[in-house]
Amino acid sequence: MAASKIYTWLLCLPLLFLLSRSQPASNQDQKLQALLQNFAIGYRALNMPGVTLSYIDRLERIQDTQGLVKQEQLFKQAAADAKEIDPTKLTGKYKVYYRQLLYELDLNQRRIALEKKFKQQAKQPPTADGILYQPLGKEFYTYWLQEYLSLPVTPDELKAFGMQEVQNVKQQIRQVRRQLGYANDSAGFYTHLNSSRFILTKEKEIISRYQQKYEIVMQHLPKLFLVTDIRPLYFTKIADADKDSPPGVYAPHNTTFLFNFYRQRHNTRSMDFLLLHEGVPGHHYQSERRRQLNSENPMGNLFWYFAYSEGWAAYTEELGQELGLYQTPYEYLGKLEWDLVRSARVVMDVGLNYDGWTKEQAMAFWKEHIPNQDDIAQREIDRMLRWPVQVHTYKVGADFILKQLQQEKQQKGSDFDIRAFHEAFLKYGPLPLVVLVEEERG
């Protein structure tokens, strides 16, 4: 599949936006609800390992053979029970829950089979060399692509997609350079970007600026979102930040956006896209809608879909101008600078964890394609080796949403309402991306 056509098979499939219309529960709805509740009880009784990004932790947490057999029994029984449901008689949200159940039953039975093989082959604890150098390393990587992204995609397709995105973003950066008068002066351009004019050194000033930008976004939010009554977002620095700390983090338990203030420095070019991603309408808004909707889905807290969550937050960075941000080329450039990192990471993650790249090869690729950010290169390479696949979730998830947005606009024309589009994506809470589209009918 060509990179330019990646995921395009999804574009002919309409989003399940109308399934939420209020309908009386059918007997099949009630039957499915009982099945899901029993499945959730059985799942929790197995004491399944919690979500972790580290491949070492994941391999170490694989249950023993007896535990895996019990898991297998649960999923096989649920699969047999699911066959007793007539999906044509399900209504509203239950159609979505049913497709999510089938997705998880298939995915987890694949996982269990892989973990059984691993238990037979692993003779020692996992090492820190990378997932590729563990027993069944390529098989785990391929499986985690499906689990993290919830889309059918291969390593080769991802690598081609990442290279295409690298070229696209570099072209956009060149356009900004021309706009700023540096079309033929690369050295002067980056000398200018590294000047102190873009650096804030006082924590209170950073918080004040974020607060001002947040208020601007909230004023514009009704243009793009139906629901705007959410709990306030707060700001503080990441405690004890170091060279490996991320640019920003969202803490849902206290609705706080934590920014990186390592060495008492914060770059103003990063503030707009970080606020959108971590705050509103990114993770904070997404978390608030999930809390408000209080989904009745018994599977709601059993599984997590990284491309749904991170893809949404990355997608919202595209809404900056409509929400009153990116008022100068520099703020938009900050978004592009980080988008270039994300795009290159797609290629590098496959290279490191599937193709056998060395760290030196990954560093050479970084230096070839990402100027002016060598200070974080080693951090990102180490991250990809520790957390294989995770970096794909941003670009792949955002690309999926943007393609769905384009399709909705084409189909509905003047009737298209972006507010309804956004609400429809969020209203069921985290889901596999393939569940957000109907299967193509032959």
How would you sum up this structure, described in words?
The chain has two domains: 3-151 and 432-436, no CATH class; 156-393, no CATH class. The chain is 55% helix and 4% strand. The chain is built from 16 helices and five strands. Helix 3 (65-82) runs antiparallel to helix 4 and helix 9 crosses helix 12 (329-355).
Sheet having the most strands: 3 strands, mixed
Average pLDDT level? 92
Radius of gyration over alpha carbons? 23 Å
**Uncertain ranges:** 1-23
Question: What is the strand content?
Answer: under 5%
Keywords:
three-stranded mixed β-sheet; globular; 442 residues; mainly alpha
Task: Write a brief structural summary.
It is built from 16 helices and five strands.
